[in-house]
TrEMBL record:
It comes from Rhodocyclus tenuis. Catalyzes the conversion of epoxyqueuosine (oQ) to queuosine (Q), which is a hypermodified base found in the wobble positions of tRNA(Asp), tRNA(Asn), tRNA(His) and tRNA(Tyr). Residues 225-254 form the 4Fe-4S ferredoxin-type domain. It is found in: Cytoplasm. [4Fe-4S] cluster 2 binds at residues 244, 260, 287, 290. Binds 2 [4Fe-4S] clusters per monomer. Cob(II)alamin binds at residues 82, 181, 215, 262, 287-288. This is Epoxyqueuosine reductase. PROSITE patterns: 4FE4S_FER_1, 4FE4S_FER_2. GO terms for molecular function: 4 iron, 4 sulfur cluster binding; cobalamin binding; epoxyqueuosine reductase activity; metal ion binding. Keywords: 4Fe-4S, Cobalamin, Cobalt, Cytoplasm, Iron, Iron-sulfur, Metal-binding, Oxidoreductase, Queuosine biosynthesis, tRNA processing. Its EC number is 1.17.99.6.
């Protein structure tokens, strides 16, 4: 957090004379400069929102009441912080919302998913499917670094013209705090209020250039002019609902995380429910299907080089990834968001994908290598996967015996 104060732990108080220099400033011109700086920092969009998130609050509370957040208890613990921005930054008056594209050039198979007119699921193969956002460098640091730089530009600009008492007021009252998916923030709502994107029926922020982008926010104590909220442009389309492998999008704008493959492979700490395992396919970290089938993503722009694919994570064989030791996992995924799930859940997810793959010697050998793994969680999912292969081979044996 950037704060023009000597003691960062002290609350920011707005003294009675704090508004004097602000009244003389051209806030519209400053907002224009903020957007220009944001473009220079690589943001696709920069908008300014107010603090009223009341339009999104009822839906969020209902989502929690229905238990659709699953085991994400932190969502329920921080309701006030999400719904009351002033609790995250005392004296906050404006929210600068940004988007940062991460989409990279896709391989042919993935382009087919985006371009096809049907929503039939691809046949699981022996290659791992990892959510696009996680194939490159961890976005948290990259996004936060850019937001911090934006805050520095902002502080330097408002201090440049100040002198004497005005400069002192700025030093005592200015504060800015950056968030990059790192705090309880209703980021999709701020994106909408700032005129960046609308909430798609899959509940993600959607623009005319698609949804392959990260969102970030910069809370500030400056009274910046607000942009107009953006209208939604989904119309009658419901390809995201039809394309969800597990039916997690239970209605337009409503997602049950307990059914979502992203939740099951990233947020869930225990066993993946057996009824969802066949539907996971080859997905070992996250799921992009609801975005991949969205027509707006045909217009996606190439993202920042920070998010370029690393370690061939867009074409890695399941058996090779399953062979990684805990040290391999930590070393090869250094700087990757995937590390947050840990080696045990990584193996859990791959075991399920191996169970959905074709029964080749390579796949069967990979499963056998972990049948006696130290982790009970891994052993249970390996046993399930082996049972899947045994069940598929049984009809073949019966057919041979009857001839």
């Amino acid at each position: 957090m950037i704060r023009a104060m000597h003691d960062e732990d002290s609350p920011t108080e707005m003294p009675s004379d704090a508004h004097a220099p602000q009244q003389q400033r051209n806030w519209a011109e400053l907002a224009r400069k903020i957007k220009a700086w944001g473009q220079e920092l690589g943001f696709a969009d920069v908008g300014i929102a107010g603090l009223d998130v009341s339009a999104a609050t009822p839906g969020f509370l209902r989502w929690l009441e229905l238990g659709r957040h699953g085991g994400m208890d932190y969502m329920a613990r921080n309701v006030d912080l999400r719904c009351r921005p002033e609790l995250l930054l005392t004296g906050v008056r404006s929210v600068i919302s940004v988007s940062l594209p991460y989409w990279q050039q896709e391989r042919e198979a993935e382009r087919a998913l985006t371009d096809r007119e049907t929503t039939a699921l691809p046949t699981p193969g022996s290659v791992a499917t990892i959510s696009r956002y996680a194939r490159g460098r961890d976005y948290h640091k990259s996004l936060r670094r850019r937001l911090q730089k934006l805050a520095e530009c902002l502080l330097a600009e408002i201090e440049q013209d100040a002198s004497g008492s005005d400069a002192e007021v700025i030093r005592r009252t200015f504060a800015a705090r950056a968030f990059a998916d790192s705090a309880p923030v209703l980021e999709v709502e701020f994106s909408r209020l700032a005129g960046i994107g609308w909430r798609g029926k899959h509940t993600l922020s959607l623009t005319r250039q698609g949804s392959w982008r990260f969102l970030g926010e910069l809370y500030t104590t400056l009274p910046l002019p607000q942009d107009a909220p953006v209208a939604e442009h989904c119309g009658r389309c419901q390809r995201c609902l039809d394309g969800c492998p597990t039916g997690a999008i239970v209605a337009p704008y409503e997602v049950d995380a307990r059914r979502c493959i992203s939740y099951l492979t990233i947020e869930l700490h225990g066993p993946i429910p057996p009824e969802f395992r066949p539907l996971v396919g080859s997905r070992i970290y996250g799921c992009d299907d609801c975005q991949a089938v969205c027509p707006w993503n045909r217009f996606a722009r190439i993202g920042d080089a920070d998010f370029a694919v690393r370690h061939d994570l867009d074409a890695a064989p399941l058996s090779a990834l399953f062979a990684w030791s805990a040290d391999d996992f930590e070393t090869r995924l250094a700087g990757s968001p995937i590390r947050r799930i840990g080696h045990e859940r990584w193996l859990r997810n791959i075991a399920v994908a191996l169970g959905n793959a074709e029964s080749t010697p390579d796949i069967l050998a990979a499963l056998a290598s972990r049948a006696n793994d130290d982790s009970a969680l891994v052993r249970e999912h390996v046993a399930w996967a082996q049972a899947q292969h045994a069940a598929r081979r049984a009809p073949c044996r019966l057919s041979g015996e009857q001839q």
